[in-house]
Amino acid sequence: MRKLFGTDGIRGTANVEPITAVTALAVAKAAGAQFRRGDHRHLVVIGKDTRLSGYLLEPALTAGFISVGMDVVLLGPLPTPAVAMLTRSLRADLGVMISASHNPYDDNGIKLFGPDGYKLSDEVERAIEARIDDGSEGDLAASDKLGHAQRLDDALGRYIEFVKSSFPRGLRLDGLKIVVDCAHGAAYRVAPKVLYELGAEVVSLAIEPDGFNINRDCGATAPGALQQAVVAEGADLGLALDGDADRVVICDELGRVIDGDQVLALVARSWKDDGLLRGDGVVATVMSNLGLERYLANIGLACERTPVGDRYVVERMREGGFNLGGEQSGHIVLSDYTTTGDGLIAALQVLAVLVPSQAPASQLLKVFDPLPQVLRNVRVNGGAPLEDARVKHAVTQAERRLGANGRLLIRKSGTEPVIRVMGEGDDARLVGEVVDDLIETIAASAK
Q1: In whole angstroms, what is the distance from residue 15 CA to residue 404 CA?
Q2: 352 lies in a domain?
Q3: Strand pairing class (5-6; 70-77)
Q4: What share of the chain is helix, strand, coil (3-state, %, to 5)?
Q5: Nearest CA-CA partner of 62 in 49, 71, 53
Q6: Closest CA to 168 of 332, 354, 324
Q7: Residue 187's closest CA among 167, 206, 213, 161?
Q8: Which of the following is catalytic: 101, 204, 329, 445?
Q9: Which helix (DSSP H) or strand (DSSP E) does residue 61 occupy?
């Protein structure tokens, strides 16, 4: 079991363990020791989103890496996929992103990437934790062997060109009006520039970060402002990124939200038709709608499921030779271009289908009819309510009520202190009743 790392790095309330300067320093020293190999000058790339607490964690991590003799390149506010890309591009030994993704400003997190640009495996994360636990984070460097730090002034420009290179040559966005909600987060400068430079008329929302407003009533988890703006502006499409821009939620010209499952279906069909899809299928998570699985089966493609977390999607993609995977929440992984979810590149792949079709987004983007699906969260404060006999009995009864044409998923969140209950099936009323009853039972047990 990992104690620090969850489904997406280390995450928690800023300036409360484990998201403190002390732990960040220890993590940097341990990760540095884990990835120090050979006598060359070792290099670490560090990016962050726009949270106030980034000013706390960035120098602590920097000090830790420098203390074990590793050089540090500071990127400043930049999307998580940019850190993954630049880790590879700069041939760094390690990449670090300081972000809590879609969480509010008072949370923060630490995500680590290996020299190949991929998130670390459970095994490597356990090894780093073991170094911290036994005090062997790494020997301190001699005074003349300390690392040094510098800022990469053109990091933003490098990433913009990388993202644009994923859009088919010969296509442009001329004539399209696009609203982009940057969540006051890491893509507040990047996203509008990419779309503008490809020819779109851009309406930008949530591009004034102040350290506190990241994800507040905006971005991928709160697309209401995007929906209103798309309709009010008469736009062709809307894009909402989350705080670190590794996922995207899309809105059609009527203001209707299109989730990651529809994006997976659209890209899968397009790539299959063009002979670009590898693995004869798509990798999704246990949260993806059963309607996606049925649609893919109808066009001759498999739908493989993993636990929640884009790194588990990526691991299965690499094992099975797939080049398309993702999550309903909008993490879309296109391994021909990226090693992790990238909201901007995913959006451009949708636009690459939309532009030649000349069809409105409302016609193109609803690829399949999703089954009724209900997701509810129960906040818990410790304990093990899922081990309670009453909860186990309620789960058994719920599964029987849904039967063979439904699905139930109950899991602890790896990023928040909540238990998530998801139910789906052909009967919307029954699904709602089953989930509500389970939520009530779990909440009573958690008190």
Answers
A1: 47
A2: no
A3: unpaired
A4: 40, 20, 40
A5: 71
A6: 354
A7: 206
A8: 101
A9: helix 54-67
What CA–CA distance (Å, rounded) separates 246 from 262? 17
pLDDT at 211: 98
Which domain covers residue 417, as residue numbers? 373-446
| Strand blocks (E) in 49-190 | 70-77, 94-98, 107-113, 149-151, 177-181
Q: End-to-end distance of the chain based on CA atoms, in angstroms?
A: 26
139 with 14, same domain: the answer is: yes
- Indicate the helix (H) or strand (E) that contains 324: strand 324-326
Q: Using an 8 Å Cβ cutoff, are 103 and 11 in contact? A: yes
CA contacts within 13 A on the Cβ side of 343:
36
Q: Is 360 exposed, middle or buried (0-12, 13-18, 19+ CB in 10 A)?
A: middle
Contact between 348 and 163 (Cβ < 8 Å): yes
Tell me whether residue 368 is in a domain.
no
CA distance 399 to 403: 6
Q: What is the pLDDT of residue 417?
A: 81
Residues 204 and 140 in one domain: no
143 in any annotated domain? yes
Q: Which of 238, 255, 272 is the last residue of a domain?
A: 255
Instruction: Find, among 122, 121, 10, 2, the residue nearest to 57 by Cα.
Output: 10
For residue 166, the model assigns a pLDDT of 97
DSSP 194-239: HHHHTT-EEEEES----SS-TTTT-STT-THHHHHHHHHHT-SEEE
Please state, in angstroms and rounded to a whole number, the distance separating the CA atoms of residues 34 and 37: 8
Residue 96, pLDDT score: 98
434 and 408 within one domain = yes
Same domain, 9 and 98: yes
Q: pLDDT means per 10 residues in the chain (447 residues)?
A: 85 97 96 90 97 98 97 98 98 98 96 96 94 81 95 97 96 98 98 98 98 98 97 98 98 97 98 97 94 96 93 95 96 96 98 96 95 88 83 91 87 81 91 92 83
User: The CATH number of the domain where 86 resides is what?
Assistant: 3.40.120.10
Q: At what angle do helices 260-273 and 290-298 cross, to 10 degrees?
A: 10
Is residue 42 included in any domain, yes or no? yes
**CATH number (domain holding residue 424):** 3.30.310.50
* Residue 101 known to be catalytic: yes
Last residue of a domain, one of 197, 220, 255: 255
pLDDT at 37: 85
How many folded domains does the chain comprise? 4
218 and 107 in one domain?
no
| pLDDT at residue 137 in the model | 63
